[in-house]
Amino acid sequence: MSLNGWLQIVLFVAAVLLLAKPMGLYLIQVFERRKTFLDPVLVPCERLIYRITGVKPEEEMRWTQYAVAMLVFSAATLVLTYIIERIQHLLPLNPQHLPAVEPSLALNTAISFTTNTNWQSYTPESTMSYLTQMLGLATHNFWSAAVGMALAIAFVRGISRREAKTLGNFWVDLTRGTFWVLLPLSVVIALALVSQGVVQNFRPYDTAKLLEPQRVTGSDGKSRTVTTQTIAQGPVASQEAIKMLGTNGGGFFNANSAHPFENPTPLSNFLEMLSIFLLPAGLAIALGQMVGSPKHGWAVLATMVVLWFAGTVTCYWAESQPNRLLHGVDQHISLAQSGGNMEGKEVRFGIANSALFATVTTDASCGAVNSMHDSFTPLGGMVPMANILLGEIVFGGVGAGLYGMLVFVVVTVFIAGLMVGRTPEYLGKKIESYDVKMSMLYLLIFPFIILGFAALTVLMPNLGLSSLTNHGPHGLSEILYAYTSATGNNGSAFAGLNANTHWYNYSLGIAMFFGRFMMIVPMLAIAGNLAGKKIAPASAGTFPVTTPLFSVLLAGVILIVGALTFFPALSLGPILEHLLLRAGHTF
Amino acid sequence: MADVIALSLAAACFALGLLYVRGCDRLRGARS
After folding, report:
1. Helix axes of A400-420 and A502-531: crossing angle, nearest 10 degrees
2. Can you tell me the ipTM of this complex?
3. In this model, does residue A335 exceed pLDDT 90?
4. I need a surface site. Which of A44, A320, A424, A547 has the fewest CB within 10 A?
């Protein structure tokens, strides 16, 4: 670990905290339909969309209507993406003449991008045409993030409203989130990325002649000499911006943000990480403002920051350690080398920015990577997986992180109420049987899908284990990570698993679908139920949700629920691998 | 055929989602 590395991490924390409040205040202006500086341009567009689609913006929805609208919208856009993938060979903007995407992969990808997961079982530059990337996939980067934001705002309305039956209008929230927040910010970030060297074009791929021809062995086992290299191009910057801002994470290229055309410099790397945390941090502040308790927003944000920082420190430490099996190799940090474990990491980012990016992207349900998590040390690789296993609530996906965290807040308040023997209250609303049942449904679906599918997969040698490139505990980690990433709607991968098979495409698709929608529904049910309640005045027995004690208790509940649920699985994967590595075994 | 299977699976998932909304709402009714 180096002073330079720590300074960059501290600078990043400071930037996130500085931007959180202005972002949060702007989000409130947008979703409470107050005046913004973009209104002269965007209000006419908004009215036109409502006129064309027949949406009545003043009509409010009950939680069930809100949920059905969200499901219908997601279904329609999923089918649209599936069709585009299947007929891309007939459509324009396909200079490489790529064929139609295979059905199981097309479905997996359509679900993946609809659910804000962006799991990619394919190599983008050799599978998806420019049109598919833009019209089929990048549009979902906007829509799925806007859906997440709308849902989070609906939940906050449920908390802040009293004796109300409705949570807002899904179509209005979706439109305003897309037009007022995601589109303008994406333009600014895309231009900043272009300034750093991220490409933006529609050219066919370049072919470069190698200075030194290479002898390689192909998949057929035959050796041949390679004299040229294909360099993929495309409209990358426009997709890169929303990929990070919307916590989507699906790379334009297979190497994702490790590719020099996606993430060329340390500054672009910093901007990309900042883009990931910008909206989740802003939403936490918006929560506090909308419920009339700004300190509560900061308390929730503080919990997120503490959990994220703990993961970053652990990952940075683990990756900075020398590999004891590399005898006679100088692995100490110096002016000439980064030291520690540099396998799978880019030299231009080094260990600190790779560990920081890994924790940011897995805390925030983004899934973009600038280093290969599969090449991390066992403990270093466990951190990204553990981040997702906590439920993607440490910042979390755009919107999804906040509403997931609020479900944990409900559970925390309930536990605090049990401790003192009073009916639990959250910001003046009594937490009752139905709220706790829905919270538990939300929390139990997540491990049920992850552990269920992972267990099923390891029992099937032909369908599940045959896709592994590593055996033993590392192989288990690869499978566990895949279902964790899919269910948590993260999308990053332990790259050693070949997931482009019928089994993985369908099972991961189902995991992504259930991990998104089956958790949203009980969350909206809690919001609808809370909205209808009266707000009781605070008394001496009310548990305050604005203090450090609350933040500590909330973090404790999150860690205990996560540890109790997943420790056995982790002990058979990365923890066992770590112990065996110390005994001299690798996998 | 593969397209039919894939789209049927997606349709089944969304239909289940709609039933799930109804189920959660009815559970709330059962409370009172």
Report:
1. 60
2. 0.92
3. no
4. A44
